[in-house]
Design a protein that fits this description.
The protein has 401 residues and is mostly helical. 80% of the residues lie in helices and 0% in strands. It has one domain: Na+/H+ antiporter like fold (Up-down Bundle), CATH 1.20.1530.20.
């Protein structure tokens, strides 16, 4: 089937099912993911995941993260990762990681499959987290700040561990393992130094009284509003490319690049234009493709152990919700905010699929475990907004009355 035809079928089906779920007061992303499951190998087998669709899906992730970064405040997110926020971040990673490893040991998996199971359970997908929070209009909330900070920490930690595993030599001496860990650690430090340096540079420019919004307006007069949007994309692409070159996922760098671009850099009317352009491209076209693609990755036919799937799903869901709730309560957040963080952290989506696909491509796991991990990513991502709407939103709405 030609790529254009495939895209049209995928987009139309995803949008239709998304609208159906919206009519029942559910986030559209559930219907969009379900569209991929229905059209994919699991049910109708009309569309299969292809490198072209994967590339479009990655571009969608980039724009979703860019949109979120522009709406959020860099200082607030960083503050959430420091001090009390570290408690949620550590619990959100270590508790699910331990649960996944114990499941692997309990079912007799070998060391590599057990480690990758633990890593995939510990992931919280940043793009999915952001999309769900956007759908509930909660990006400017405690739940968003701590959830996004924890998602970033979890993804960086998982990708750091992945980088160490992939760089391990065949002869695993203590010296060689130590060298691999050091090699991955300095790359992470380099990425952090780059982000902090740019942040400090922007802060110095503002402190000297330079009006960045006036400079951006002059740039618009000189090259046009569309060119300004292009420069914005280029800046974020640079951060994403540096992140990818250092061995981390593109999304991590792209998010921080977008986060550094404050809305104060533009006049209010100009910022609204940028926001409208992004939402039109992302919400109307690319986001449905991204979520539908997650559904396409699922293959029911190769899963042969019901109990293994059930235990993996139960552990992955319970450990994330427990970690978020416990961490939130320990730092003094309300019950509704703590529960909301726990539910939001449960969405895995694309980042979990990244870890699983790398492990599968490198031969660390087989098709059976890969499909279980895809199922876990799809199910946890689909049920996260449902649980959040049912058990958290009513409490939040009562608080605002």
């Amino acid at each position: 089937m030609p790529l254009l035809t495939t895209l049209l079928i995928l987009i139309v089906t995803a949008r239709l099912l998304g609208q159906v779920f919206s009519r029942f007061n559910q986030p559209a992303i559930i219907g969009e993911m379900l569209a991929g499951v229905i059209l994919g190998p699991s049910i109708l087998n009309l569309i299969a995941p292809t490198p072209a669709l994967s590339g479009i899906s990655e571009f969608a992730v980039f724009l979703i993260v860019l949109s979120a970064g522009l709406e959020m405040n860099f200082k607030e997110v960083i503050d959430s990762m420091r001090g009390k926020g570290v408690v949620i971040a550590l619990l959100g990673f270590l508790l699910p990681l331990t649960g996944g490893i114990l499941v692997g040991i309990g079912f007799g998996l070998d060391v590599s499959r057990t480690i990758f199971l633990g890593l995939c359970v510990s992931i919280t997908a940043l793009p999915v987290t952001v999309s769900i929070l956007q759908s509930f209009k909660l990006l400017d909330s405690n739940i968003a700040r701590y959830s996004v900070a924890t998602a970033i920490f979890n993804d960086i930690a998982a990708l750091l561990v992945l980088g160490v595993i992939l760089n391990l030599p065949e002869q695993k001496s203590y010296q060689a393992v130590g060298g691999a860990i050091f090699h991955a650690s300095w790359k992470l430090i380099l990425l952090i130094v780059l982000i902090v340096s740019v942040s400090l540079l922007i802060k110095k420019v503002i402190e000297k009284g330079i009006s960045i919004d006036q400079w951006s307006e002059k740039l618009v007069e000189l090259i046009g509003n569309e060119a300004l949007f292009g420069l914005l994309l280029l800046l974020v692409l640079i951060f994403g490319s540096v992140s990818a070159a250092l061995g981390f996922h593109f999304v991590i760098g792209a998010f921080f690049g977008a986060l550094l671009i404050d809305r104060k850099f533009f006049l209010p009317a100009r910022y609204k234009e940028l926001e409208l352009t992004l939402s039109s491209i992302t919400g109307g076209f690319l986001a449905p493709v991204f979520f539908a693609y997650l559904g396409l990755e699922f293959k029911m036919q190769v899963i042969d152990s019901f109990w293994f799937v059930a235990v993996v799903l139960a552990v992955s869901i319970v450990t994330k919700i427990l970690a978020g709730w416990l961490g939130g309560r320990l730092i003094g957040l309300s019950k509704s905010d703590s529960l909301g963080i726990g539910f939001i952290l449960n969405g895995r989506g694309v980042m979990e699929l990244v870890i699983a696909s790398i492990a599968y491509d490198r031969g660390f796991i087989g098709q059976d475990l890969f499909s279980v991990l895809v199922l876990m990513g799809v199910v946890t991502t689909m049920i996260t907004p449902l649980m959040f709407r049912k058990w958290v939103m009513p409490q939040l709405e009562n608080q605002t009355r």
